[in-house]
Amino acid sequence: MAATQLKSLYEDLLRSFSSNPSDLKRCGVLLNQLKLGLIQTGLLLPVGEQNLNDLVVAREILEIGAVWSIRTQDVPSFDRYFSQLQTFYTDYSSVLPPSPREYPIRGLNLVRLLTQNRIADFHTTLESLPLPADAIAENPFLAHPVSLERWLMEGSYSKVWNARAEAPIEEYKYFIDSLMGTIRNEIASCEETAYESLPLKDAATLLFFTNQSELLTFAQQLQRGWQVNLSSGTITFARKSEEKIEIPKQKLIAANLSYARELEQIV
Q: Which residues pair with 228 in a beta bridge?
């Protein structure tokens, strides 16, 4: 691909991405063409000395691709773009000017790890950041996922829910919504164990739903046999039958007596 064609596609991508709202379909087409161009020019995974301006353009294309992936709810695509960006964020960090999108994207990756319950990877990635601890705490794009992880470990799910409104950029909300889906499933399991039934309003509050219709949709999607009675305003949970486990009392007594006799012989 000629340099002039690559530049034209890049400028078209900037216009499509910066429009309000972004033309996501057009961005997807352009990104595919641009990635092919980056491969042909050796800029997708650059090595050695490269033209500085070319590296900046390649980095921005991949960053737009990462954000575009979240806006189109394509997490595997985000993973690929983030992996490709590592060369620019690490190997060429000393020669490239800082990117305003770097830490928002790094923060998105941290939240993604939380949604996938990859806590060990979360801490490894956090520790590998080229920032001291106090700088991470002051960076809103990094402090946000750090707080989310702490609240998850504490079981402070209400703080996780409230964190959605405090997301530093809109794309964080996609992962927080995914995280809340996992949390709601855990809470639903606890409700089934703790209660036979609950008022619809209370069940909705416990599951962080703002209205009854959201609760009814959730209960229908779960397919766990919940019975909703709109006239009485209650929801009845399908309790799992308790398995009866037979304890071999005679065998345990005989084994304990045998151990006791052996101990007496040793003493």
A: 235
Digit-coded pLDDT (tens) for 248-260: 767 777 777 676 6
Q: Using alpha carbons, select from 72, 68, 82, 85 the residue that is nearest to residue 111.
A: 82
Whole-structure pTM over 0.90, yes or no?
no
The DSSP 8-state label assigned to residue 197 in this structure reads: E
Identify which of 71, 181, 168, 63 has the alpha carbon closest to the alpha carbon of residue 115. Answer: 181
CB atoms within 10 A of CB 45: 14
Helix (H, G, I), strand (E, B) or coil at 228: strand
pLDDT-derived band of residue 14, with 50, 70 and 90 as boundaries?
A: very high
Q: Which residue reads 């923060």 in tokens?
A: 107
Asked if residues 108 and 66 have their Cβ atoms less than 8 Å apart, the reply is yes
Which of 157, 235, 254, 240 is closest to 197 using CA atoms? 235
The span from the CA of 71 to the CA of 74, in Å, is 8
Q: Find out whether 194 and 205 touch, Cβ atoms under 8 Å.
A: no
Alpha-carbon distance 64 to 17, whole Å? 8
